[in-house]
């Protein structure tokens, strides 16, 4: 069966036939995948014994092109997977690519650094405002793309950018925030440690003919320590865990005039704002953006100045 993890349990999966917050073809993908692996059985991953083959099915959907990118994440390769790719594309032409990722470690995460193309294209494309983005299977991209456009516009407005500004975009992912802001500043430097995301970001700059942006593959803490660049404006959009103490310390050393903190986790945001406040920053404004209606998930855009 295919499903979602039961809340509060790492080893229990709830079967899902329909997902009402995804495109209706998602249900078709789930049904076809169940059908194929019922006819071509392979052992599923056992979360307690750390053995088995089938682990995750990744589904990415382009809202603008209405195409899908699928990723089979398994513990080892098997001839069935190439057959599955042909099967799924034959029955659902809107699947533009089927990829295979090998994950043979015990960690309970669907992330793998590299995917092999089984059929079709290695990535999908999505539009945000006037910009078009390449998105690979392992790169971060906002799930609710319609609302993401509103989020990035709100970030750009909050930053109060000027044509002379040097903007530093930390945890830049595929470059979305930096590219949105690039036409309004002198230069943008984006920093990200995920190689797939940085490759997408560079492609996205070319795709949108933006030349005043540079993307750096590096750990944010390491970059801030080694770089002598002092930005006028800094935007940080960290993971849910927030900013680690050494990154906070490096930000305070850089002391940008304006700091925009974008957060998906109010708890770690409040923790980090206390540290930044003690380091000389004052919160000027907070804007919440409802990313997933009817859930508690939101993004917060916080403007801080020295």
Describe the 3D structure.
The strands form four sheets. This protein has a seven-stranded mixed sheet, sandwiched between helices. The protein has a four-stranded mixed sheet with strand order 3-4-5-6, covered by helices on one side. Strands 1-2 form a two-stranded antiparallel ribbon. Helix content is 30%, strand content 30%. The protein folds into two domains: 3-121, OB fold (Dihydrolipoamide Acetyltransferase, E2P); 128-305, Vaccinia Virus protein VP39 (Rossmann fold, 3-Layer(aba) Sandwich), CATH 3.40.50.150. The chain has 306 residues and is of the alpha/beta class. The radius of gyration is 21 Å and the shape is globular. The protein has helices at residues 25-39, 79-91, 145-159, 176-181, 195-207, 220-226, 245-254, 266-278, and strands at residues 3-5, 13-15, 54-62, 67-74, 95-102, 116-120, 123-128, 131-136, 166-170, 187-192, 213-217, 233-236, 258-263, 282-290, 298-305. A hairpin with a 2-residue loop joins strand 7 (123-128) and strand 8 (131-136). The model has no long low-confidence stretch (mean pLDDT 94).
């Amino acid at each position: 069966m295919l499903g979602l993890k039961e809340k509060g349990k790492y080893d229990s999966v709830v079967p899902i036939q329909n997902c009402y917050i995804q495109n209706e073809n998602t249900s078709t993908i789930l049904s076809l995948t169940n059908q194929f692996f019922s006819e071509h059985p392979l052992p599923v991953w056992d979360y307690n014994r750390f053995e088995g083959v089938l682990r995750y099915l990744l589904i990415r959907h382009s809202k603008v092109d209405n195409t899908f990118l699928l990723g089979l994440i398994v513990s080892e390769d098997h001839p069935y997977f190439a057959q599955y790719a042909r099967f799924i594309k034959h029955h659902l032409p809107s699947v533009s690519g089927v990829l295979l990722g090998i994950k043979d470690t015990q960690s309970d995460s669907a992330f793998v650094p590299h995917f092999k193309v089984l059929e079709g294209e290695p990535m999908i494309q999505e539009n945000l405002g006037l910009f078009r983005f390449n998105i690979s299977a392992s790169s971060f991209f906002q799930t609710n793309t319609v609302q993401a456009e509103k989020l990035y516009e709100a970030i750009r407005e909050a930053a109060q950018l000027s044509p002379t500004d040097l903007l530093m975009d930390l945890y830049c992912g595929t470059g979305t925030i930096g590219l949105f802001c690039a036409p309004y500043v002198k230069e943008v430097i984006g920093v990200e440690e995920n190689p797939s995301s940085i490759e997408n970001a560079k492609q996205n700059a070319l795709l949108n003919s933006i030349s005043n942006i540079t993307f750096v593959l590096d750990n944010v803490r390491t970059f801030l320590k080694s770089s002598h660049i002092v930005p006028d404006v800094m935007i940080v959009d960290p993971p849910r865990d927030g900013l680690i103490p050494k990154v906070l310390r490096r930000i305070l050393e850089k002391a940008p005039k304006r700091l925009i903190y974008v957060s998906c986790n109010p708890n770690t945001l409040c923790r980090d704002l206390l540290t930044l406040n003690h380091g000389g920053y004052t919160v000027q404004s907070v804007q919440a953006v409802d990313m997933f209606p009817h859930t508690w998930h939101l993004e917060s855009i916080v403007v801080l100045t020295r």
